[in-house]
Amino acid sequence: MRLLIVEDEPKTGDYLKKGLTEHGYTVEVARTGADGLHLALESDFDLILLDVMLPGLNGWQVLAQLREKKETPVLFLTARDQVDDRVKGLELGADDYLVKPFAFSELLARVRALLKRGKPAGADALCVADLEIDPIRRRVTRAGQRMDLTAKEYALLLLFLRRQTEVLSRTFIAEQVWDMNFDSDTNVVDVAVRRLRAKVDDPFHRKLIHAVRGVGYVCEAR
Amino acid sequence: MADARGRPGWLSWNSLTARLGALFALLSAALLAVVGLMLVHALEAELRSRDIAELTAKTAQLREALGDFESVPALRARQDDFFGAVYDRERQAIVVADRAGRALLVSRELMVPRELLTGFAGQPGRGPQAVDWTQNGDDWCAVLAWGTLGQRSIASAAATPVVLVVALNRSSTNLMLDQFYRQLILLLAGGGLVTSAIGFAVAWHGLRPLRQIDATASAITADRLAERLDLARAPAEVQRLGASFNAMLARLHESFRRLSEFSSDLAHELRTPLNNLLGQTHVALSRPRAPRDYQDVLESNAEELERLRKMTEDMLFLAKADEARTRLDWQTFQLRHEVDKVAEYFAVVAEDRAVRVEVTGAAPVHADRRLVQRALNNLFANAVRHAPPGTPVRVRIDPGDDGGVRLAIANAGPGIAPEHLPRVFDRFFRTDPSRPDSAESSGLGLAIVQSIMRMHGGLASAASEADGLTTFTLRFPAASAHPR
Ligand SMILES: Nc1ncnc2c1ncn2[C@@H]1O[C@H](COP(=O)(O)OP(=O)(O)OP(=O)(O)O)[C@@H](O)[C@H]1O
Ligand SMILES: [Mg+2]
To answer: Do A41 and A16 share a structural domain?
Structure first.
């Protein structure tokens, strides 16, 4: 998967490149709007991360000119959380947008969502190690043992399994499981995950859900 | 005239002072002129009627005297007797003419205009008539009357009708009137000047409060917002303007005060996490460490930074709410539905703390769903956090009788001290900043609740009984009363 980052702020560009490269993407960085547009038109990328405030050609202009020729998905990065900006970006053909400052895990989640777009969600593997989910019968088993989960615990576990190895931020989890679309009290997520782990992980030696301190939670068989 | 800022000055044509002054001057000049003219007119008429009365009296005397002379020659022979003592040679002239208008006797050289004389002579028996004319630069006024010669003699058949003319030279009177005229004009001009000066002065004085407003307004800067207009002696018209102006200043002052308080609070709130970040990072970098130690520092930094991020987000939200820049996504929905959703979100935490959440009532509201969800979230977080284990958190939704909706969320616990109650909705306000978990909380939660309610044209309020229930109430206005 090839990504293009168009970002003039050097530190932002560098850490985005580093983080995304470490997650298995091939990343190129352009520091100006003109460079970015040139690169985007020259070669094929799977996704473009586009900053709005750029010297010379700004993000809007880059997007407008790009859309005349190509349909590469674009994720907008903006520092201005204004309805107008959001609407303008989406109207111009951006596929998603993210307001700075954002958590890297948040960005990663959105990048993955955009790249996966169009692929059927059911195709995800719904098991990790000896834990299995049967989505049709809504049944969870670990090591052949049936687990009794509440509806929200089930939804939470389903999210973890669908997003295995991804670090999920608390905000993202709250949004996905409880439909809380803002910085809600994330303490709730900690409690909910703790309860889920008590049922799914505590009785077993091998832990599947791990806290990533300062970032969120990840589900993987270590 | 314009001042340095390009505004018209106090004496330019569209200044009120100039206009009022000019109007005053114009009116007083017109008034003076009218009164003066009327005076002159009245004087002139009065003088003339006196002259005519004098002439008429004289005529009556002379007519009487005519009876003593039986013929024209007799009259001529004793003309001094006829003219008599009453005759004022300087100013008067007497003519006796026959029926054809021919002069029979003339007291002094005087030409009564012929047509006047013949005109009157042609109307025998007519009553006395007053006439005016000008001759050789002199203005004359005369009374013409019929008289009869020899009326008193025994032989009354010899009586001869004659025309008697008694004239008065009015030149001196007219001269006096002219002088009077001239003086009057001078007086008018002078009076006009004086009254316009007074007019300007009065207008200038009357508009002084406006200039004071100008001066005060010009002197106002961010650090001198406490300045107010002194309205104690201002006229009624200016009082209202001044009062509005003062009210505006008061509002500005208050917003400014809040703003500067807010930014100093903000700086203060940022200092602690920034200090931690800086300190931890510096200590970590001061010597080589095991990777595990670096990881520790980074993780701690990440937590701290996450809090900073959330705080800036909240602050931005509040700032935008203040500027009314947030466009609301109005829709009508069941408030109960959102409450249940948020209650479900907090269910695990509540259960963890052995707190029950009980929701009663239902009502539709017209509002922005996401914002309402956010407000509920903050209220639930507080209630669940402060409720002692084993106690319920009660949420009640009431459709108000005014068409609005009320939501009350109550929890037991130590409550909020009365002196703290009015401040709980203030930014960064925490009742006990030394609490161990206060590092987790920013004190922005209730401020956001209040600003969300304000955006909806509603209100959030708090009530707390000592060692009793702490209740937060959200009031949504009736759908018709929504600001748009
Ligand atoms: N239900 C309640 N019972 C008792 N005290 C309360 C309650 N809700 C709020 N308070 C008091 O009011 C203060 C302000 O609350 P607010 O929600 O604004 O800030 P916070 O909860 O401290 O921080 P944040 O919500 O930003 O995490 C709190 O510090 C708390 O002491
Ligand atoms: Mg709070």
So the answer is: yes
Residues B334 and B405 reside in one and the same domain:
yes
- Matching residue, tokens 């089930």: A154
- pLDDT (tens digit per residue) in A41-66: 988 899 999 998 888 888 888 999 99
- Name the closest residue on chain A to residue B344, using Cα atoms: A178
Cα angle at B175 between B171 and B179, to 5 degrees?
A: 170
Partner residue opposite B377 with nearest CB, options A82, A103, A180: A180
Report in angstroms the alpha-carbon separations of B352 from A153, B260, B346, B386: 15, 41, 10, 13
> Could you tell me if A182 lies within 8 Å of chain B, comparing CB atoms?
yes
Report CA(A83)–ligand 1 centroid distance (Å).
29
Whether residue B264 sits in one domain with residue B407? no
Chain A environment of B300 (Cβ under 8 Å): 214
C-beta separation of B393 from B409 below 8 A: yes
Q: Is the CB of B441 under 6 A from ligand 1?
A: yes
Q: Where are the alpha helices (DSSP H) in chain A?
A: 10-22, 33-42, 59-69, 83-92, 104-116, 151-162, 170-178, 187-200
The whole-angstrom separation of Cα A79 and Cα A98 is 8
A124, two tokens = 């995800």
A203 and A180 co-located in one domain = yes
Of B286, B320, B354, the domain-final residue:
B320
Confirm or reject contact between A122 and chain B (CB < 8 A): no
* C-alpha to C-alpha distance for B310 and B171, rounded to whole angstroms: 106
Distance from CA of A154 to the nearest CA of B (A): 14
For residue A79, the 8-state DSSP code is S
CB of B431 within 6 A of ligand 1: the answer is: yes
Q: Give the DSSP per-residue string, B307-376.
A: HHHHHHHHHHHHHHHHTT-PPP-EEEEEHHHHHHHHHHHHHHHHHHTT-EEEEE---EEEEEHHHHHHHH
Helix, strand, coil percent values for chain A (each to nearest 5): 45, 20, 35
Q: Is A184 near chain B, with CB under 8 Å?
A: yes
Instruction: Say which DSSP state B134 is in.
Output: E
Query: Amino acid identity, residue B387?
Result: A
Cβ of B407 less than 6 Å from ligand 1 = no
ipTM: 0.75
**SS3 sequence, A192-211?**
HHHHHHHHHCCCCCCCCEEE
Counting ligand 1 atoms within 8 A of each CB, the residue from B317, B385, B411, B424 with the most, and so the one to mutate, is B424
Structural domain containing residue A190: 126-219
Cα distance from B414 to chain A (closest Cα, Å)? Answer: 22
Whether residue B144 lies inside any domain: the answer is: yes
* The Cα angle at residue B453 between residues B452 and B456, in degrees rounded to 5: 95
Ligand found nearest the CA of B450: 1
pTM above 0.80, yes or no: no
C-beta separation of B450 from B426 below 8 A:
no
pLDDT tens across the length of chain A (222 residues): 899 999 988 888 999 999 999 888 999 999 999 999 999 998 889 999 999 888 888 888 899 999 888 888 999 888 766 656 677 777 777 888 888 888 888 898 889 888 876 555 554 558 888 898 888 888 899 988 899 999 999 999 999 998 888 889 888 899 889 988 777 777 899 999 999 999 999 999 999 999 998 889 999 988
Under an 8 A CB cutoff, do A183 and B326 touch?
Answer: no
Rounded CA separation B224/B214 (Å): 15
Co-location of B399 and B444 in the same domain: yes
CB contact at 8 A, A217 and A192: no
Structural contact between residues B373 and B339, judged by C-beta atoms closer than 8 angstroms: no
Establish if B230 belongs to a structural domain.
no
